[in-house]
Design brief:
With about 300 residues, the chain is an alpha+beta fold. It folds into three domains: about 1-95, no CATH class; about 115-170, Roll (SH3 type barrels), CATH 2.30.30.60; about 175-275, Alpha-Beta Plaits (2-Layer Sandwich). The chain has helices at about 1-10, 15-40, 45-75, 80-95, 95-110, 190-205, 210-220, 260-275, 290-295, and strands at about 120, 125-130, 135-140, 150-160, 170, 175-185, 235-240, 245-255. Helix 2 (about 15-40) packs antiparallel against helix 3 (about 45-75). The chain is elongated. The termini are far apart.
Length: about 300
Amino acid sequence: MIEFIHEWLGIHPDLQLKIFNTFVTISVAWIIQRLLTKFIIDNLKDPKHHYLWGKWIKYFIAFFVLLILIRVWFGAFTNLGTYFGLVSAGLAIALKDLLVNIVGWIFIIIREPFKVGDRIEIDGIDGDVIDIRLFQFSVIEIGNWVDADQSTGRIIHIPNGIVFSKFQANYTAGFEYIWDEIPVMITFESNWKEAKVILKNAVEKHAIHLGKEAERQIKEAAKKFLISYQYLTPIVYTSVKDSGVVLTLRYLVHARSRRGTKEKIWEEILEQFNLRKDIDFAYPTTRFYDNIKEGKSEARAGNDK
């Protein structure tokens, strides 16, 4: 048969043997995969385990088939070192993601960009770290469809290797307080100076107690990071926009208490503004302004002076 094929098709006997061995190898691998799937994989009731075991069996069979085909077509390996080198390279390629995750786990444990209990943001996901394992870490999500920084209840599992490719923001590493701002817009006719006093009193009432503790934590964090804040006390900034005067409260708040603190400040502002007749909130409206009647006396249109 070999001579017949050689004479009529011009295929060399050595090439015929390689083609035959390739066919046999692939066929045997296919049969082994089918048997393992039928007697092992199909008996797994958990869909997740069914998927994972089926996936890894395909990977390992394909890897060893590749090794055999390399030997068939390119001959025996010159030495054992070469063989194990190819095996190691193949495993590194096949298990690349797992190896990256293990290295990421080592980095997280040693460098500590975050630890269990920290509130972090990574790749657009905000949450509190609740577990760190060999291949992945888990966070309980905050935000998303829930307002402010409240928990959604979802637990998100993130591969450790992501720390090498995505930025991470840590809300609580060394310094557990963050700066928050509340913009309050009032009309141009309002007594903005009195409004500013009200806002400053409100923010100091609910945020001033954070000063000393925040200062202590900043000093501790400065030993590890280049962190320096000159002022930690609340402040109210004044600016003007198209619809009115904007008074912006800026204050320190614990990373996990931002929503509750903001609620208390807003309630204080609403109560105090309700007592004043010379302060009104500004909101989108349409107004017709007559400079002759409403403008300043020296700047009114039609002034003969």
